[in-house]
Structure formats: C-alpha cells, structure tokens
Amino acid sequence: MKKMSCVLVAIAVTMLILSACTRQEPLLYDHPLVGAWASESETKYMFYSDGSGVSISGLTSTFTWSIEESDNVRVVGIGDSLERVYSYAVDGNSLTLTFRIVVSDISVSYVRLDLTDDEKAELFYVNRSLIGIWATDESGENNFIFNNDGVGSRNLPGLTMPIEWSVERNNRLRISNDGEIVYWTYEVGGDVLVLTSEEFGSSIFIRLDAE
Asked: Is the Cβ–Cβ distance between 184 and 154 less than 8 Å?
C-alpha cells in the first residue's frame, strides 16, 4: 500500500512538472522536412529543427524556414537573400519542392540522405553531452533517457513517457511529451546533470551509463 502511494505521488508530481512552463506552438521538430535532402543536380538542403537551414549548391548559403498553410514552406535567405514560398510534398524519403517563376511552376525532387549520429544530433540541436541515461540515484528508477536521435523517455516506477528533446543555443533544454513542451536550463559537469526550472528549482541527476 505504501509503495502504491509513492507511485501515485510520483505520477502526480511528474504530471505537474510536464504541465509547468509549457506552451503550445508549431513543432518544427516533428516536421517531416527536418533532415538532409539532395537533388540529382547534387543541390543539398539541410532543414534544422529550430527553423534555420543550409543550402549547398557549389556555394553554401544559410536560410530560415517556416511552415505556412496549405503545405507551403517559406524560405528566406538562400543565395541573394530572396524570400520564396514553396509548396512541398514529403512521401517517405522523397521530397518535392515546387515554386512559381512568372506563370510557370517548377518542381524539383530530392531524396533524404542517410546521416551519421553526429549529423542527426546537429540537425535536431541535440547536445551530445546529454545523450545517455540520467537518474536521481543509482537505483535508476527515476530517470531520463536521452537518445542521439532526439527522442527518449521519462521513467518513474510504474510509468514510462516517451519524449522528444532538443537544446537551444542559450543552454535551454526543450522536452516535449504528447504535444506539451517543458523548458529547463541545464548544466552538465562530468557525470552530473543539473536541470533547473523557475517553479521547481533544481534537480540533480547522475549518469548511469558512464564508462
């Protein structure tokens, strides 16, 4: 009975944490455009989960991108800083971008590139120092698992919740679960991780998978 009460309390606390500091927003992280794409002419696009990107076609250009209604993506900054709206269609590992010049539609096909773990981490702004299993104690019952592809899980006794995670450039950790987003500041020192939120203060985790 006592153990069951502890589990219920842990679940309640976790749900409070997941509902704190949350906001609903479009999730580029979940968007099928995120990734690396190449055309037959060897033009490459890298769509990053934070709305930035890189175009490689002889020269390398950076751009920003955002999703609009009706399956359109707005791209700003390629080449001579033009702003262009493409319609897009993603079918598995195939991408078609279509844009209009005067009265003609031009479509270009791309295939998704296979990426190394390091390249995937870069695309999804995954901090590699966070990858692994982090627990509040050596029992490992209360832990976060951060995988190298930006997914993972939040685990408590009797409860496992899938998560998606990425980091922002200001040392902020973004964790989403079922459409809800929680932001934490984080600090990694060796095998110790400190997560901090304004409402819940700091929590200390130790790395369980350290070699």
From this structure: no
Dump pLDDT digits (tens) for 58-82.
778 888 888 887 788 888 875 555 7
Contact 152, 193 (CB under 8 A): no
Tell me the H-state helices in the chain: 2-19, 117-123
Structural domain spans, the chain:
2-25+124-207, 35-122
185 token code pair? 């500041």
In CATH, the architecture of 35-122 is Beta Barrel (2.40)
* 3 state SS for 118-142: HHHHHHCCCCHHHCEEEECCCCCCC
Q: How far is CA 107 from CA 53, 71, 96, 198, in A?
A: 20, 14, 7, 48
Token pair for 26? 């479009």
- Extract the residue ranges of the chain whose pLDDT is less than 50: 1-27, 211
Class of domain 2-25+124-207: mainly beta
Q: State both tokens at 52.
A: 């930035």
